[in-house]
Write a structure and sequence with these properties.
The chain is of the alpha+beta class. The protein has helices spanning about 20, 25-30, 120-130, 145-150; strands at about 35-40, 45-55, 85-90, 95-100, 110-115, 170, 180-185, 200-205, 220. About 15% of the residues lie in helices and about 25% in strands. Strands 1, 2, 3, 4, 5, 6, 7, 8 and 9 form a nine-stranded antiparallel β-sheet that branches. A hairpin with a 3-residue loop joins strand 3 and strand 4. The protein is globular.
Length: about 220
């Protein structure tokens, strides 16, 4: 785990650059790697490093909930200005956390697939919230449903601004993405996406143990 502020520390790190929120999801997804997700709870603040993301790129992406401009009570938040949280439930039991990016009315979102606790104190509080025995440390948050349980993220956090510190959830600057070993691969569990299923729109930190799934056909990501 990387060193950072201790869990419960009242000092906030610098907020994530607003420029990232304005980018299309495909550009924002790799730039969110290495950044810090902060969850404030009644037991203190938890800080995590984002290690895996997936891009969902708007109306044309058949893997997106907003494909074709679909605008429903669930997807409405995707049409917000970048920097908003999008939280939804899958299989009736697992929540998923997304960062809305891009311009208002252009439904772009980045799924946070895996995070790594920054300190042992962060990991201990996350394990308490998970409330289950773990076969390995990475099992704490190596998947979107797992990390939401470990951070107590549910639909009550849907529609939050993530560019403002002090609320229940926000993003802070972490490692410069250009300094990280990032790879990309196809997204997971979207067989309905047709020709979009195999596009390499998932990004993760190479060799990080908290990554949910590694792909044999991963390719090196090159900064834009």
């Amino acid at each position: 785990m990387n060193g950072s502020q201790s869990q419960g520390d009242a000092q906030h790190g610098p907020l994530l650059s607003s420029e990232i929120y304005r980018l299309p999801a495909l550009q924002a997804a790799p730039l969110l790697l290495g950044q810090h997700l902060v969850r404030r709870t009644e037991d203190g603040e938890i800080r995590c490093r984002i290690v895996e993301t997936e891009s969902y790129g708007g109306r044309e992406d058949k893997g997106s909930h907003a494909y074709g401009g679909r605008r429903t009570p669930r997807t409405e938040v995707m049409f917000s200005a970048g920097g908003t949280s999008y939280v939804y439930l899958i299989y009736g039991m697992y929540h998923c956390l997304n960062v809305v990016t891009g311009e208002r009315d252009d439904p772009q979102a980045v799924l946070i697939r895996a995070v790594e606790p920054l300190t042992p104190a962060d990991a201990a509080l996350m394990a308490l919230y998970r409330g289950t025995a773990l076969k390995k440390p990475a099992g704490l948050s190596d998947g979107p449903g797992k990390l939401c349980r470990a951070l107590r993220v549910d639909k009550s956090l849907n529609g939050l601004r993530l560019d403002q510190a002090g609320g229940p959830l926000w993003l802070e600057q972490g490692d410069p993405p250009q300094s990280l070993d990032i790879v990309q691969a196809p997204r997971i569990n979207i067989p309905y996406a047709g020709e979009f299923e195999k596009l390499p729109w998932r990004f993760y930190l190479c060799d990080n143990p908290f990554v949910s799934v590694r792909d044999k056909q991963e390719i090196k990501w090159a900064p834009y």
